[in-house]
Amino acid sequence: MKHVCALCGYVYNSDKGDLENGIAEETDFEDIPADWTCPLCGASKEDFDLVEDDDVADEDF
Ligand SMILES: [Zn+2]
């Protein structure tokens, strides 16, 4: 599942987590600590939107 930052377009992919910021792979967005912020622009979790479709390119497929 993916969530996209409404401010800068950064995509959080729950399959990959955010290792640079201490979020392990396969961490659901809802399980990320509330104080986590967008790695690119510093937006809070509340500024992220669920990506309903899979338009985002994914190299794994
Ligand atoms: Zn952002």
Secondary structure elements and pairings:
Blueprint: E1 2-5, E2 11-13, E3 48-50
Antiparallel strand pairs: 1-2, 1-3
The structure holds zinc ion.
Zinc ion binds next to loops.
Model description:
- The chain is mostly beta strands and 61 residues long.
- The protein has one domain (2-50): Rubrerythrin, domain 2, CATH 2.20.28.10.
- Helices cover 0% and strands 16% of the residues.
- Strands 2-1-3 form a 3-stranded antiparallel β-sheet, with no helix packed on it.
- Strand 1 (2-5) and strand 2 form a beta hairpin.
- The two termini are 14 Å apart.
- 11% of the residues are buried.
- The mean pLDDT is 91.
- The structure holds zinc ion.
Q: Percent of residues in beta strands?
A: 15-25%
Q: What's the tally of helices?
A: 0
* Biggest β-sheet strands, sense, barrel: 3 strands, antiparallel
Uncertain runs: none
Gyration radius, rounded: 11 Å
For the record, the CATH class is Mainly Beta
State the helicity in percent bands.
Answer: under 10%
| CATH architecture assignment | Single Sheet
Order of helices and strands: EEE
**Count of folded domains:** 1
- List the strand order in the largest sheet: 2-1-3
What would the principal axes of the Cα set say about the shape? globular
The name of the CATH topology is Rubrerythrin, domain 2
End-to-end distance, in Å?
14 Å
